[in-house]
Design a protein that fits this description.
Layout lengths: L1 E6 L4 H4 L14 H13 L7 E4 L3 H14 L3 E3 L19 H14 L13 H17 L4 E6 L1 H11 L5 H6 L7 E7 L3 E7 L2 E2 L18
Parallel strand pairs: 1-4, 2-3, 2-4
Antiparallel strand pairs: 1-5, 5-6, 6-7
Helix pairs in contact: 2-3, 4-6, 5-6
């Protein structure tokens, strides 16, 4: 299956760089709405059999224009939510609490699944809920599925599940609003990342371009 993971459009909390992960969450800014409206054209070359979105408002609003153009119903699943910030909710991304959030997220991707976000979920719980939605899409027979999700969740899941994306790669490459990670594979056979925000992902061990510092969750 070809799997496209899309970060939602811009929100007011993104502008303020806040860890805003609780439901239902904010809507989109005017720019975020424009980003969502531009997705159908940006992905016109992609054949899609299914469109999924997390149940947070920003993800559903981002998925809506694309689903409408493709004549598909958006499948809403809570499993695609952002990693819960727990006790760190609404803290600035550049604060010590924001840095702790990202360290925890990438520790999960590195295999420390028992580690728990303060007042929030564990790595095992976060990966399990995301895996469940991906497995559902694969079991549906879809050849290509798109999932509108959230920055930290996409980066964490991809680093944990794609054979050619390690933690260093994902931590060094933030994902802009409506940025897309494209993967190919299956839950049984594993996943390979084909592109990250439009750039080809090189095979594991071959290096790649230098990244830049991580951004806060979205």
């Amino acid at each position: 299956m070809r799997l496209l993971l899309v970060r939602h459009g811009q929100t007011p909390s993104n502008l303020d760089r806040l860890l805003d992960t609780a439901a239902p969450g904010p809507g989109l800014t005017p720019l975020g709405a424009q980003q969502a409206a531009a997705l159908p054209e940006a992905l016109a070359g992609e054949g899609l059999d299914a469109v999924y979105a997390s149940d947070l408002l920003r993800a559903r609003l981002t998925a809506a224009p694309l689903a409408a153009v493709r004549g598909l119903e958006t499948v809403v699943r809570a499993g695609l939510r952002e990693v819960s910030a727990g006790d760190l909710e609404m803290r600035p991304g550049g604060s010590p609490e924001g840095e702790r959030y990202l360290r925890t997220v990438f520790a999960w991707a590195a295999g420390d699944l028992a580690l728990r976000m303060p007042g929030g979920e564990s790595g095992e719980e976060a990966l399990a809920r995301y895996d469940e939605v991906v497995a559902e899409a694969a079991a549906s027979g879809a050849a290509a599925a798109l999932m509108v999700s959230h920055g930290a969740a996409i980066r964490m899941w991809t680093a944990a599940r794609a054979a050619n994306v390690d933690v260093a790669f994902a931590a060094a490459r933030s994902l802009a609003n409506t940025g897309v990670v494209v993967l190919d594979g299956s839950p049984a056979d594993g996943w390979k990342a084909l592109s990250w925000a439009g750039a080809t992902v090189v095979p594991a061990g071959e290096g790649g371009p230098a990244g830049r510092p991580v951004d806060p969750a979205g």
